[in-house]
Amino acid sequence: MSKILRSLVAASIATFSVVFSVAAWAALPQPGLWSFTSEASSKPGRGLQIDRQGGEALVVSYYGYREDGTATFYQATGKITEGKNFSADLVEYQNGRALGGKARDGEFGRNMGKVRLTFTTASTATITLPGEKAQIVSKYTFDDTRARLNNRFQAVMFESSYGITDTLKGLMNVKVFGDDFSAVLQYDGSKEYCVFSGKLVPSGSTFRVTNGSRVCTGESLATPTPYGFADLSVNEAGILSARGSYGDVLSGVCVRATNNTVAAPTWNQTNRCTSEDLGLSANPNN
């Protein structure tokens, strides 16, 4: 039985509502600036800076205003519990070093009360601040990186569908037109390939592919299967990553197109994408 056939047989043994969903992971937040959804505008406002360094520990900095209009900031530190919840004291500090002033340590000012966050995804959450009702916050994105997806990648698909584990290597060509996503994954040493398609939805610094499908060919087989991606991104070094349906994990590296329309890059080549291919002005330090 072919690799493609095994994965499709595994997928067919579950119902649509179960198999189409991307495997549930903890909703660990993307680090960076977060904004209050209902207060978003082009004018200065308030927001959050969330710092997370790969684990469950968080430093949440709130910047906003006092009643008299002067700016202030508060901080809260703690750990995420149950994969999505955060609760900690929101603390004001005072008497620290001023711009151009002499060195001096800041000190505890006052405890403003508990701040509570429940992360619904990696880029959205509900927040309850002291004295306020719960409201929605989301990861602030000021750089559209979807153009990086419009490349080709030496890719690996780690499949783990219902007890079947497989590692598939190949060349993936990705195309994005507006919100339309499509990708063709041609497997190494095989005439089999899969076509992925769907709607591209921004999710903070990553993307989701929703309302999608996967059609795989090989051995006269071409069966559409509901499929989606979460946490889809290409970083500044050209590294592709995503989580797929059925517990799949996609990883890859951006490679340059060749002038030879027959030959395709192989795993022994080092034709990495340039900064121009990735929309950058200079090559990142690898």
Q: Based on the structure given, which CATH architecture of the largest domain is correct?
A: Beta Barrel
What count of helical segments does DSSP give?
2
Radius of gyration over all CA atoms, rounded: 23 Å
CATH-derived topology of the largest domain: Lipocalin
Strand content: over 45%
What is the N-to-C order of secondary-structure elements (H for helix, E for strand)? HHEEEEEEEEEEEEEEEEE
Assembly type of the shown chains?
single chain
- Terminal residue distance: 40 Å
CATH class of the largest domain: Mainly Beta
Helix content: under 10%
Structural class, by secondary structure, is mainly beta
Low-confidence stretches: 4-20, 260-265
Characterize the biggest β-sheet: 8 strands, antiparallel, barrel
What does the overall shape look like? Answer: elongated
**Strand order, biggest sheet?**
1-2-3-4-5-6-7-8
CATH superfamily of the largest domain: Quinohemoprotein amine dehydrogenase alpha subunit, domain 2
Mean pLDDT: 85
Number of strands: 17
Q: Count the domains.
A: 2
Overall description:
The chain is elongated and about 70 Å long. Strand 12 (193-203) and strand 13 form a beta hairpin. Residues 4-20 and 260-265 have low confidence and may be disordered. The strands form 2 sheets. Strands 1-2-3-4-5-6-7-8 form an 8-stranded antiparallel beta barrel. The protein has helices at residues 3-12, 16-19, and strands at 32-36, 47-51, 57-65, 71-79, 85-94, 107-119, 124-128, 135-139, 152-161, 164-177, 180-187, 193-203, 206-217, 223-226, 229-234, 239-244, 249-255. The protein has 2 domains: 3-25 and 144-255, Quinohemoprotein amine dehydrogenase alpha subunit, domain 2 (Lipocalin); 32-119, no CATH class. 5% of the residues lie in helices and 49% in strands. By secondary structure, it is mainly beta. The protein starts with a helix and ends in a 31-residue tail after the last strand. The longest helix has 10 residues, at 3-12. It has 2 helices and 17 strands.
